[in-house]
Amino acid sequence: xxxxxxxxxxxxxxxxxxxxxxxxxxxxxxxxxxxxxxxxxxxxxxxxxxxxxxxxxxxxxxxxxxxxxxxxxxxxxxxxxxxxxxxxxxxxxxxxxxxxxxxxxxxxxxxxxxxxxxxxxxxxxxxxxxxxxxxxxxxxxxxxxxxxxxxxxxxxxxxxxxxxxxxxxxxxxx
Length: 174
Known about the structure:
Distance between the termini: 83 Å
Structural class: mainly alpha
Strand content: under 5%
Order of helices and strands: HHHHHHH
């Protein structure tokens, strides 16, 4: 193989690689724009409803007792800068993958990691009121959390939200 042939072959591979990378970047940029990707960096609750699967949660939040004092990110994401954006990225990845491949459960259910974040955020606002109740709480799945009794606080009536019913909803006593 001559030097000219070798150079031509190298350029051909470079062109193919450039086209593939350009196509991948272009497709990613289009998808980000089409999915209103920048809105996910905001704290606007409407951004959570960009995906149709979250519309019922957004509508229920608007009718809830917390809608005037807390947004989605106040309850569902860590309050520190890096933790918040790491959780947004992780949840965004799982939500977009599930939505793209139609591999999600309706009603959408909170994952264990996010339930822990939710519990921490309940306590960050209300810990002084319940410190005696949660003093002996553990991280075990059987531990009582705030949403065991107060499941309707953030999203109002539970219709379509999934998860176990609370004692109040089945007529039991807390």
